[in-house]
Amino acid sequence: MQKARTAGGKLVARSGGRLIADALVAQGIEQVFAVPGESYLDVLDGLYAVRQRLHLTTCRFEAGAVNMAEAYGKLTGRPAAAFVTRGPGACHGAIGVHIAMQDSTPLLLFVGQIPFAETDRESFQEVDYRRMFGPLAKWVTQIDDEKRIPELIAHAVDVAVSGRPGPVVIAISEEMQKRMATVADIGPAVVAPAHPDPAAVAQMMAMLAKAKRPLAILGGSRWSEAARADMRTFLVANNIATVVGFRRQALYDGTLDNYAGDLGVGSDPALVAKAAEADLVLAIGTRLGEPVSQGYTLFGAGHGAPIVHVHPDGGEIGRVTRPALGIVADVNTFAAAVAGERVGKVGWGAWTKELREIRMKGLGVQPYEGLNLSQVMHALAGLLEDDAILTCDAGNFATWPPRFINFKDGQRFIGPTNGAMGYGVPAAIGAAISFRNRQVVCFVGDGGFLMTGQELATAFHHGVAPVILVFNNQMYGTIRMYQERTYPGRVSGTGLTNPDFAKFIESFGGHGEVVEEAEDFAAAFKRAASSGRPSVIELRMNPEQITSRGTIAQLRGGAAPKPVTAKVKRAPAAKRIPARAKPAAKR
After folding, report:
1. How far is residue 547's CA from residue 373's CA, in Å, rounded to a whole number?
2. In this structure, are residues 303 and 325 in contact, taking their beta carbons and an 8 Å threshold?
3. How does the average pLDDT of the chain come out, rounded?
4. Number of folded domains in the chain?
5. What CA–CA distance (Å, rounded) separates 83 from 296?
């Protein structure tokens, strides 16, 4: 086994593959998610040598592996490493890079590369990764010189976590991994985060003191536990109405009296209308991107409210919306700086109360036909542990949990802000592997589940037991919604035929349930959660209820629908093919 140093402290030669593994350990990386490939065989051997210090999760699909690493980054603020093979493996993994970029999540993706001497010959699986990942990643590099491995991996981690966090892609050429080099490891850099200018904080407080209808919007990534507590102290003490950005429910305690909901896809129209009436917006950590700004209509030149924009990357301030005051600061240092700040007299108590009442009214059980998902979500809220981790896929179903559950301070709700389907299941498995003592629940539609549901094999392989809630409406619901708005009644390409999801998980040896009535959900969830095995609960929705706020008939401009009992369309059973008769012997 190769060692970095001898007993006397002298450096010894190590292969490039071992140097990569040691560099990850030196940088404090704890989790690696991978689909193995011959293009990084030497790194796999290096990972074997450090297996006591670096946990390797073997996945079934590259998109799943990168999404697991992305979920780890969301939950911890630190990057995990994903490894994929060259060519097809890199293409499969690219979706996770796009998620990490748009969601501002630190991530390292290592991609095996062809031998350097074969470059530009269209060698087997050759891709120029700088060109391929250039628009998707924060930085793309390739290691061809094994002596530079510690340097380049250290810099990759620094880039991933600094400023606006994001993904870094590192291609590793094949022959470099085999060559030997005598170089020292490099530890993490100690970098002081950007602190807010005290004069800017004072200016913000002066603006707040003059406001009558202030609104705080929390977003972004890498919030520490202390920062959440500091920000909560500031916002509660000053009674500021607070919302979270799209799929950023993890940032604020939804049970507090100043929590008003979320701004994003599926937001309460009443909340959106009130947000337009705000006379001061404190945008903290968020980019104020397309979902939060409701398609760039809610804030901007036509909106009279001044905006205080706090973001760790100065390049993001003013990029979308011109603020009245920009503060370049790490969200954690900013939260610490304002925790003790108070306005002399709060003059917006009625405003904050009004926004909270809108939230609570929208939270109430609704009279849906078929499986009443508002009742299901209320039941689930009472069954979640105080530190539960909730992962969410993309689709119309994803609006149900944020609408009907006020997530508690210790709970974490994560999902892809870039709207990528196939995220929820691998994210749940990655979370369960990384936090083995916490309850993990996934929300996913029938479409997204069959994109990466096979990663349940990874859950079995690594001994974790997330509970997967599959919202089955037999369609690509979001696309069908837009289709009905634009071409009502002309259904094309959005219908789905599904397997029996409960039997699907049972075929792995897991626990399966089917729920068609809301009153059956709590018992089914308790059985699944206590089974100790990966579980799937299929929620057979009423397909007519296209969103939590409307039906297909309403989209078509018709009357309210009559009660519907959904008939689940299943794939036909395979027909048994009789054995062929033996051919007659030739005479």
Report:
1. 11
2. no
3. 91
4. 3
5. 37
HSE-CB at 573 with a 13 A cutoff on CA atoms is 3
CA distances from 42 to 38, 89, 223 (A): 8, 17, 36
Model pLDDT for residues 370-402, shown as the tens digit of each residue: 999 999 999 999 999 999 999 999 999 999 999
The radius of gyration computed from the CA coordinates of the chain, to the nearest angstrom, equals 26
CA 503 to chain centre: 27
Q: Left if phi > 0, otherwise alpha if psi is -120 to 50, otherwise beta: which for 396?
A: alpha
The CA-CA-CA angle for residues 194, 196, 199, to 5°, reads 150
Q: Model pTM? A: 0.92
- The pLDDT tens digits of the residues spanning 429-471 come to 999 999 999 999 999 999 999 999 999 999 999 999 999 999 9
Domain boundary among the residues 344, 361, 378 is at: 361
516 occurs within a structural domain: yes
Give the number of other CB atoms < 10 A from CB of residue 161: 21
Within 13 Å and on the Cβ side, how many CA atoms surround 186? 16
Distance CA 140, CA 168 (A): 6
Does any domain span residue 422?
A: yes
Answer with the one of 361, 382, 409 that is the final residue of a domain: 361
Domain that holds residue 34: 14-181
266 and 356 inside one domain: yes
Rounded to whole angstroms, the Cα distance separating 536 from 456 reads 10
Other beta carbons less than 10 A from residue 62's beta carbon: 27
Report yes or no on 191 lying in a domain. Answer: no
